[in-house]
Design brief:
The structure holds two protein chains of two kinds.
Chain A: H1 5-22, H2 27-47, H3 55-79, H4 85-105, H5 107-111, E1 113-119, E2 126-137, E3 141-145, E4 157-162, E5 165-175, E6 178-184, H6 188-198, H7 201-204
Antiparallel strand pairs in A: 1-2, 1-4, 2-3, 3-6, 4-5, 5-6
Helix pairs in contact in A: 1-2, 1-4, 2-3, 2-4, 3-4
Chain B: H1 4-10, H2 30-47, H3 65-83, H4 89-111, H5 117-132, H6 143-147, H7 150-162, H8 168-191, H9 197-210, H10 220-238, H11 249-263, H12 268-282, H13 290-304, H14 308-321, H15 325-335, H16 341-370, H17 376-386, H18 397-417, H19 423-444, H20 449-452, H21 456-468, E1 473-477, E2 492-496, H22 502-510, H23 512-520, E3 528-533, H24 534-543, H25 550-560, E4 564-569, E5 573-578
Parallel strand pairs in B: 1-2, 1-3
Antiparallel strand pairs in B: 3-5, 4-5
Helix pairs in contact in B: 2-3, 2-4, 3-4, 3-9, 3-19, 4-8, 4-9, 5-7, 8-9, 8-10, 9-18, 9-19, 10-11, 10-12, 11-13, 12-13, 12-17, 16-18, 16-19, 17-18, 22-23
The chains are: A alpha+beta, B mainly alpha.
């Protein structure tokens, strides 16, 4: 049901929160798990597809969304006279898991992600596919953010796959947790996709 | 306005190559070692601070010298982290974050109780939800909170999940969590207004130096403020005309979620948010008419539906206050009137700090204008809270306006500090400014701790009274400055003596036992109590709300009168009951 790390976190934290609420466990552990659930889980479910640039900003947006979800579900049940802490936890968990699946599978989500692969050590192939979030897009390059990018060498070439179309990319510049890539040898399909989906960034600017 | 990296992608022609930044582990240098040493010294210093030694100038003079020196070191390291030539964002975040954490954690560590008497009534509303699983929207004591119950509903859920019996623990440590979230919010919003990450973090440092306004406690407005910053940050990132980010389903859902949470939690914040979003839209800084429209819809929808009992009952008062900016501003300043010499300095420190930030920010706007940078976005954000001065809001509106302006003011101030391109020039301006701001903060934010903090003994006395008193009791209080209304609050009808009219106060002063015996003999109440605490007396001495000898004389008179007996008698608080 949840094949990516965001989905696994949402599922695991919901289950943990449920277990610690039902069992009498040491209160520090219980408080920590509950706080982690309340401040992270619903937010992780949504921010998976639009994580902001830096870790701190991501944390802020994630916790703001999570707190909002706890407040809204609790208020809604209180307003209709059905306030129940266990029901609220259940609703939040289910909504987070379903919400995560929905936004992860939505077409808008797919547009925002590309896969990149590094050249193997003997340079005979491209290996170790990773996903990265597209932060900005131009006709000649893009800005992406995601795990593993920090390990790339300056000017290293990677293979990019975006919505099934392929190009190569060369690392140009980093700023914090985001990385600029220049497109190299884009396929016609890739170029068409860039133009079709987002237009020419030079013209736009 | 695009970040440098956006321009890099969009710029035609050959690309220049900048070497990647080093990893965080490469920067584990002396300054990080000093941060660790300073935080350890701060924590030891705070644990060794005796709350009994907190005097007229508040908490700071009571902290051991090495603890204060460690705080000064943390401030210096935070400034150093943003001004040093090899700026690394994570290092700046670590130093500024450590400073914010320990400044916020100082009161809970030293006092072990919740600061500010009015925080306890918020705990009381959460207690009501926990006991009843419902709200009382017609409640005439704390009705406003029952009509905007977001914080209380959410924290009641948290309290239950954690297995606690009330929200006191949550309230005690809320300032740490809220200030860290606010730090994230300020950084997030500022990041949408400038290319420079240094200016963003210097702005965050200036923000916390200047934020003495004290809205970081367990309260609906503190929660709504964090969400307010997050909404504006998201809106400016995804809906600016020049933005290349794509607002997918999750962005829309997140904004709807956060705006709705603000609308059900607080009265003022959604209005400021609406004006800010509308201003940004009209000024062409965002392209999303639906954002101000949805904010207005959510706000008005909540007011005319769920919150209608409160709105209908208070409509005349709201209408009378609305549109009187001069009167509302004067009310804020009148509320800050003080009688104690130390408190004159405390008030002056807060106002001086705001004047400094306003001056620096004004210069920052001029600099932006000269550089042809974007001034419309900051101006739209600054104008939004200013229009709220037409509302009274309990005589606090000027401070609330300042708080909503502060993130933008702080960023503009940071740009002024970093106007000189040389590091030495930036230190020359930045050091005295940041030093002045944090010196002011030490007075303005902690200078009232002598009377705005409470002992565990006082909390225990109020808890015991709340348990033993029958519902429908009369509670006569010296003032409201004590841990009031946090448990079973609806059991009582409250009569704070310092809010009685002058004639009534004079009659009590002339014959305390006779007058209070008569009040307690009212058959309309199941029972009656007089509650006097040391914090009430300290408040009266500092703010002059009652004559200095008033409360001690009342206590002496009741102790000497055979018609009263002390139901609960401790060194910090006493509860008198009428003998049958």
């Amino acid at each position: 049901m949840t094949s990516d790390r965001g989905g696994q976190f949402v599922l695991a934290s919901t289950l943990l929160a449920w277990i610690v609420m039902l069992l009498e466990v040491p209160s520090f552990l219980r408080i920590s798990i509950v706080l982690a659930f309340a401040f992270l889980t619903p937010g992780v479910a949504l921010t998976r597809t639009f994580s902001p640039t830096s870790f701190f900003e991501r944390l802020l947006v994630t916790s703001s969304i999570s707190v909002s979800a706890v407040v809204l579900v609790s208020t809604a049940l209180l307003a209709v006279g059905l306030w129940s802490p266990s029901a609220i936890l259940l609703i939040l968990g289910v909504v987070s898991i379903v919400g995560h699946k929905v936004v992860s599978n939505s077409p808008a989500s797919g547009k925002n992600w590309l896969d990149w692969e590094r050249r193997s050590s003997d340079e005979s192939s491209f290996v170790h596919s990773r996903r990265a979030k597209i932060m900005h897009l131009g006709s000649d390059g893009c800005v992406i953010s995601g795990p593993g990018l920090a390990a790339l060498d300056p000017c290293e070439t990677v293979r990019l796959t975006w919505l099934g179309e392929v190009s190569f990319g060369r690392l140009e510049e980093v700023e914090g947790d985001v990385f600029a890539l220049t497109f190299l040898e884009p396929t016609a399909g890739f170029e068409a996709l860039v133009a079709q989906k987002y237009g020419d960034i030079s013209a736009a600017s | 306005m695009k970040t440098s990296i956006e321009r890099k992608v969009s710029a035609p022609g050959p690309k220049s190559f900048a070497p990647p930044q080093a990893g965080f582990s490469d920067h584990l240098d002396t300054s990080l070692f000093l941060v660790a040493v300073a935080t350890i010294a701060v924590v030891i210093g705070l644990f060794r601070t005796d709350p009994e030694t907190v005097g007229d100038f508040g908490l700071v003079p009571a902290i051991p010298l090495y603890g204060l020196a460690a705080f000064v070191l943390l401030i210096g390291l935070a400034l150093h982290s943003v001004l040093r030539t090899d700026f690394v964002e994570r290092r700046a975040a670590l130093t500024v974050g450590s400073l914010v954490t320990f400044v916020s954690a100082a009161p809970p560590i030293v006092y072990d109780t919740v600061r500010f008497g009015w925080t306890y009534k918020h705990v009381g509303v959460t207690d009501f939800v926990l006991r009843n699983g419902s709200l009382d929207r017609q409640d005439d004591v704390l009705g406003i909170y029952h009509n905007w119950p977001g914080l209380f509903a959410g924290s009641a859920s948290l309290v239950e999940w954690m297995g606690l019996s009330n929200a006191l623990l949550l309230a005690t440590w809320s300032p740490v969590a809220l200030n860290l979230m606010t730090l994230g919010g300020v950084v997030y919003l500022s990041g949408a207004l400038t290319d420079s990450r240094r200016n963003v973090w210097l702005g965050a440092l200036v923000f916390f130096g200047a934020n003495w306004i004290g809205q970081d406690y367990y309260s609906p407005q503190a929660l709504a403020y964090v969400l307010f910053l997050a909404v504006l940050g998201l809106a400016l990132r995804y809906f600016r005309p020049t933005s290349l980010l794509l607002p997918g389903t999750a962005v829309y859902l997140s904004l709807i979620l956060m705006i709705s949470a603000i609308a059900v939690s607080h009265q003022l914040t959604p209005m400021v948010l609406f004006v800010a979003l509308l201003g940004l839209q009209v000024a062409g800084q965002i392209r999303a008419w639906w954002l101000p429209a949805f904010t207005a819809l959510a706000t008005a929808g909540w007011m005319i539906s769920f919150a209608s009992p409160y709105v209908e009952a208070n409509l005349v008062g709201i209408a009378n206050d609305f549109g009187s900016p001069v009167g509302n501003a004067a009310e804020t300043l009148a509320k800050a009137t003080i009688r104690n010499d130390a408190q004159v300095w405390v008030a002056a420190a807060g106002r001086g700090s705001l004047i400094l930030v306003l001056s620096l920010a004004g210069l920052g706007l001029v600099i932006r204008q000269e550089r042809r940078s974007n001034v419309l976005t900051p101006l739209a954000l600054l104008a939004a809270p200013a229009v709220m001065i037409v509302m009274a809001f309990g005589g606090e509106i000027l401070f609330r306006v300042a708080l909503f302006m502060l993130p933008v003011l702080a960023l503009l101030a940071a740009e002024t500090i970093r106007h000189d391109t040389s590091t030495s020039g930036q230190w020359l301006v930045g050091l005295p400014c940041v030093a002045l701001l944090f010196a002011s903060l030490s007075l303005a934010s902690f200078g009232k701790d002598n009377f705005y903090t409470f002992s565990t003994n006082e909390v225990d006395v109020v808890a015991e009274l709340s348990e033993v008193a029958p519902a429908g009791s009369l509670l006569i209080e010296g003032s409201r400055n004590y841990p009031a209304q946090f448990l079973n609050y609806e059991k009582f009808v409250y009569v704070p003596i310092d809010r009685e009219n002058l004639e009534s106060q004079q009659s009590i002063q002339e014959a305390p036992a006779d007058v209070l015996f008569e009040w307690l003999s009212n058959d309309a109440y199941e029972s009656g109590f007089v509650l006097l605490t040391r914090s009430q007396q300290r408040n009266a001495l500092a703010l002059g709300t009652l004559p200095p000898e008033f409360l001690p004389e009342v206590e002496s008179a009741l102790r000497a009168d055979h018609r009263f007996h002390a139901l609960i008698d401790t060194p910090e608080a006493v509860v008198f009951e009428r003998r049958p």
